[in-house]
Design a protein that fits this description.
With 249 residues, the chain is of the alpha+beta class. The protein is built from five helices and ten strands, in the order ααβββαααβββββββ. It is globular.
């Protein structure tokens, strides 16, 4: 067989093998662990019901911002779901957060005013960063149905043993950003999320963000975010969110 003809057949054979491998991988993804499919179906169904039920409630949210372990700011809000399906927050302590009128200072105290200006600017900076990492956390929790489905199609979801017999876990990679990680812990009997743990980042992986979300059930069975901790690791800034006092509207 001539060399050119041999290379031609070798190329065809190599291409056929590539197509076969691609087909095999696609079939493997489609036939993933049936437990994953079952858990995802439960999450999707229940999250839709919970979102619908939460729209009939109003509740209070308290945010605590800490820097290097020291509490810097606390805010309280009255919350309800808006027409777009996103929480709408009304400040409850807006008057407390307003800056107090400055008292007249003796001459020669300009240095004190400059220092106060620097302190206020720092407060604005960490408050802005706190808002950003909190917004990132809400991009993960509660999990989005379409993003979960996309992660499943990509083969980025794997089951993991739960810490207790009644728990199941799903570990998701590349959910929102490249190389991020999200672990869902579910109660198998209640078919409801118990917690979500996320390892993500802001604009760069060096600006790491850790997120822990705890869920709880209301008397009517509605599952909701009860508490959330968001930590900007490099800046040692933490936002603690507590939701309580749920009432029917």
């Amino acid at each position: 067989m001539a060399r050119n003809e041999f290379e031609k057949y070798a190329s065809i054979l190599f291409g056929t093998l590539l197509l076969f491998n691609a087909f095999t991988v696609s079939q493997t993804v489609a036939a993933q662990n049936p437990e994953i499919q079952q858990r995802l179906a439960e999450i999707k169904e229940n999250s839709a019901k919970d979102k619908e039920n939460l729209a009939t409630y109003t509740w209070q949210e308290q945010d605590t911002i800490s820097l290097k372990g020291e509490v810097k700011k606390q805010e309280s809000f009255q919350v309800r779901m808006g027409p777009d399906g996103k929480p709408q927050k009304i400040p409850l302590n807006a008057g407390q957060s307003q800056q107090q009128p400055a008292q007249a200072e003796p001459s020669g105290r300009r240095g004190g005013r400059v220092k106060e200006h620097v302190v206020e600017k720092k407060k604005e900076e960490y408050k802005e960063y706190a808002d950003k990492i909190a917004a990132l956390a809400h991009s993960y929790a509660p999990p989005d149905r379409e993003k979960l489905q996309e992660a499943f199609k990509q083969g980025n979801i794997n089951p993991a043993p739960g810490a207790a017999a009644d728990q199941a876990r799903l570990v998701i990679k590349n959910y929102l950003k490249p190389n991020d990680s999200m672990t869902l812990t579910l109660n198998k009997e209640q078919k409801a999320l118990q917690s979500v743990e996320i390892a993500s980042y802001m604009d760069s992986p060096s600006d790491a963000v850790k997120i822990v979300v705890q869920f709880a059930k209301l008397p009517d069975g509605t599952n909701h975010i009860a508490a959330m901790t968001v930590e900007g690791v490099s800046k040692q800034l933490k936002v603690d969110v507590q939701n309580s006092n749920y009432k029917k509207m």
